[in-house]
């Protein structure tokens, strides 16, 4: 009896989640001043690293930069030692990943300036009097998550292309493993971004409704209006992907997605639709939300999933680029009528669940 209760009890653990809220526009001048000082530290680390490699053949780590940046906070008006250390560690990590002696300089002014970025370590920012307190200043934000209920870890302030600032913070949240949920397979596409094995569909091409207004603004060279329209398209896409991925994670215990690559398709006439479909973002959302929920998420090789019949496994479906217009077909071996995308999603589910491959 005790073992049965233990089995039925939800398993609880913690995971890291990133919360992003918008900062009030009146704080933008102060944040831009902070970002200018951040860029100076970044460029100093960039120059120091390049000289150390050329003159001594030594690749500096984030810890090595601490000796050269000690006391640098006295030279700046806004940022402190925790931000300077975080910049150095982030720079060392990025340079190591890129395998380059020098990264790009961060520009604070001009048309091609770098977007603002102000990182900080854990405990450098905290919630105080209904605002974010950081570096001796209070920042008012649109609190849509209830930040007072979380313990802040490391994070940063970031700026988008429209000059709006956001507060991004890592927090610990409880993870509950659900039980008694279904499995589902997902086939990714262009017109329909995602088609599930149960027939659920996420329609795509969010740019279509604003395509005319975007072209008009671009021809008139209205840069601010163009950025605003791009932001609206991006927000609509992100909203739809977040809602759909959350719906799948809440009702499914196993999620299998076709491993489709967009690297080759971005160089074709379908590049606009491929980029708008945002397959990578959708899979990333499913990945981290599945980890937080404690469910299974895997990417499956989707070879022959479109051609194979999900009932009998016969390879009699449409093939080739010319057959992309064929959305419904009938299996010549078993006579079952198939929707092209739903059939592929069912085959992906069978492969992911470990059943017989098509």
TrEMBL record:
Record-level GO BP terms:
DNA recombination; transposition
**Mind listing the UniProt keywords for this protein, alphabetically?**
DNA recombination, DNA-binding, Transposition
A Gene Ontology MF term for this entry?
DNA binding
- Domain (Probable transposase IS891/IS1136/IS1341): give its ranges: 168-267
Q: Which Pfam families match?
A: Cas12f1-like_TNB, OrfB_IS605
InterPro entries per record: Cas12f1-like_TNB, RNA-guided_DNA_endo/Transpos, Transposase
Q: Name all Cas12f1-like TNB domain ranges.
A: 279-348
Q: Which family does it belong to?
A: In the C-terminal section; belongs to the transposase 35 family.
Q: What protein is this chain from?
A: Transposase
Q: Which organism is it from?
A: Granulosicoccus antarcticus IMCC3135
